[in-house]
Amino acid sequence: MRRGVGIQAVHNQTQTQKQLQNVSDQISTENINKIKEQLVIFKENLEQFAIKHKKDITKNPEFRKYFQDMCNMIGVDPLASNKGFWSQVLGVGDFYYTLGVQIIEICLKYRGSNGGLMEMNILADHLRKLRGKNSQEISLDDIETSISKLKVLGNGFNIIKVNKKKLVQSVPCELNKDHTDIIILAQENNSSITESQISQKLKWNNHRINSVLNFLLQESMVWIDDQSTETIYWFPSLWSE
Amino acid sequence: MNSSESFQFPLYYNKEPFFTIQPIINTRKIQLQMWQDLILAYSRSNKIYELDLNESIKTNLNLFNNEKINRKLSRDSLKIIFDDIIENGYAEWIDKEKNRVLIMWRKPEEWASLIYKWVSDCGFLNTVLTIWEIQNGDDSKKQDFHQLNTTILLKSLKVLEKQSKAQTFSSDDEGNLGVKFFSI
């Protein structure tokens, strides 16, 4: 196309651009509408699914986990509100809030004797005892979901992964990698550890070992036992009962 | 003191560090509370009112010596634990050497109200009973205070005297000491 000169040419050019813009807008709107339509259909289906399987969702912890995952994938959070459609249909909002309160209750009760660290299976046992036989069965995933909801209350609750086990931390202190390394080591070693075991396995110098152990002692996460050839440091939180 | 087979030890009795007094004050507080709970429950289950600490170490009393995990309390640890229990009002030193200890798994105030309830339930108000009858009489056989240690019983009666619910009559022989309970 020959490049036009003069005022008319400029005018023509803007005109063309405007028309192109219009067409593109139109296409975008159509696309968005289509997606919106699809989403509405999907949401309806999901709601119908939820209503249909309400019993399974509330009763079966495994099924609940899958449903929760599916909802998370499309950005729907059935737990986000206590008043929304989801909690009304499923009552899941209440379920996790109640569980959250029970988790806090148990963690506080045992904070003194375990330093605010509790192995998740032990927490689950305590929860089942507290909730009684006739309540809904709970899974470790439920506990994790519940704790993630507790995070809005501040950084008091945290889940530390220690190899295959998970520890629920209910005190707001920062555990760094050195601390968790020792917890992992202790967990593999019958929930106890000595200084020489640490230096042998992790090749740390004495200063580093002492500073980590002292921190854990101060936080009541570790108890000492001096009736052996070497002082043994025990983690009450790792004891299986 | 071999009747302890029936006593159910708590789980923490099988944890090694429980037998080492913890250096960190917060942890120690919890540990001492756990020891108090255990000692009082054990004494209650075995009806122990007096303990000779040196003797209990010498005879390896299982309460302070867990052979299964090869851990035991030292004499110094025992002293720390009982000092704490005494501070909480559940025990008293009997001798100046702080070796023999009086264990009150119920405080005299609690015994006092139990005894007073029993007396009024049995219709003994306004009559005179002897200490011996309270401790060994047929009427008290089913009561927790049957065979109650005399020192603790006298402490409990003192509590009732202070509340004007009883009056003791002195006697040369402790067993013949009389006590009259009043209705209020």
TrEMBL record, chain A:
CC annotations in GO: ESCRT II complex
Membrane-spanning segments: none
Pfam family, one: EAP30
Subcellular location: Cytoplasm; Endosome membrane
Family annotation (InterPro entries): ESCRT-2_cplx_Snf8, Snf8/Vps36, WH-like_DNA-bd_sf, WH_DNA-bd_sf
GO biological process, one term: protein transport to vacuole involved in ubiquitin-dependent protein catabolic process via the multivesicular body sorting pathway
Its membrane topology: Peripheral membrane protein
Keywords, sorted A to Z: Cytoplasm, Endosome, Membrane, Protein transport, Transport
Family per similarity comment: Belongs to the SNF8 family.
Subunit structure: Component of the endosomal sorting complex required for transport II (ESCRT-II).
Physiological role: Component of the endosomal sorting complex required for transport II (ESCRT-II), which is required for multivesicular body (MVB) formation and sorting of endosomal cargo proteins into MVBs.
Name assigned to this protein: Vacuolar-sorting protein SNF8
UniProtKB/TrEMBL annotation, chain B:
Domain of life of the native organism: Eukaryota
SUPFAM superfamilies noted in UniProt: Winged helix' DNA-binding domain (SSF46785)
Organism: Dictyostelium purpureum
GO molecular function (one): structural molecule activity
Family: Belongs to the VPS25 family.
One of the Pfam families matching this protein, by short name: ESCRT-II
Compartments, as annotated in UniProt: Cytoplasm
Keywords: Cytoplasm, Protein transport, Transport
Name of this chain's protein: Vacuolar protein-sorting-associated protein 25
One GO CC annotation: ESCRT II complex
Keyword Protein transport: yes
Biological process according to GO: macroautophagy; protein transport to vacuole involved in ubiquitin-dependent protein catabolic process via the multivesicular body sorting pathway
